[in-house]
Amino acid sequence: MGVSLVVAYACNGVIGRDGGLPWHLPSDMRHFRELTTGGTVVMGRKTYASIPDKFRPLPGRRNIVLSRDAAFVALGAEVFPSLAAALDACGWDCFVIGGGATYGEALPHAERVYATEVASDVEGDTVFAPLSDAEWACVSSGEPIAENGHEFRIRVYERR
């Protein structure tokens, strides 16, 4: 499988607001759960903290959290000081699930991006850089879904 990113972003690249998601999309959350269950998820410390207590660590997955703080403890998860150490620990076979800095660092290593593209601009404070057409090809595109005032579709991109 290799390194894959799983991300949801708006037209303006926004992925987060005030430490959480700027939308509530149950179909996307179901897709995320089905995709990542049984695998390894890698996330930054803030992303780990943003997961509601009852779902943390994410069940049915190996949870890896990145933190430069050697004293940081993530109950039910493994903590690594760098993305490189985390990728080595999982044999470069994982889903990177955020946040913004972690996506930015992981993107050059990724072979695939599972993207939920929300067809609107939203306010937020964390963004995902656009995928370059020269580097990425869309290999799958789902039908549009409308939920809670947002239209979105799930696409899969592979590195060219």
Structural commentary:
With 160 residues, this protein is α/β, with parallel strands linked by helices. The strands form two sheets. Strands 1, 3, 4, 5, 6, 7, 9, 10 and 11 form a nine-stranded mixed beta sheet that branches. A two-stranded antiparallel sheet has the order 2-8. The longest helix has 11 residues, at 26-36. It has four helices and eleven strands.
What distinguishing features does this structure have?
160 residues; alpha/beta; nine-stranded mixed sheet; two-stranded antiparallel ribbon; 4 helices; 11 strands
Quickly describe the structure.
With about 160 residues, the protein is an alpha/beta fold. It has helices at about 25-35, 45-50, 85-90, 100-105; strands at about 5-10, 15, 40-45, 60-65, 80, 95, 110-120, 125, 135-140, 145, 150-160.
Order of helices and strands: EEHEHEEHEHEEEEE
Radius of gyration: 15 Å
Counting helices, strands and paired strands, the structural category is: alpha/beta
CATH topology label: Dihydrofolate Reductase, subunit A
CATH class: Alpha Beta
Indicate the mean pLDDT: 97
Number of strands: 11
The proportion of strand residues reads 25-35%
Instruction: Quote the distance from N terminus to C terminus.
Output: 16 Å
- Fraction of residues in H or I helices: 10-25%
- What overall form do the CA principal axes indicate? globular
Largest sheet: 9 strands, mixed
Low-confidence stretches: none
CATH superfamily: Dihydrofolate Reductase, subunit A
Number of helices: 4
Q: Please state the second-level CATH architecture.
A: 3-Layer(aba) Sandwich
- The total domain count is 1
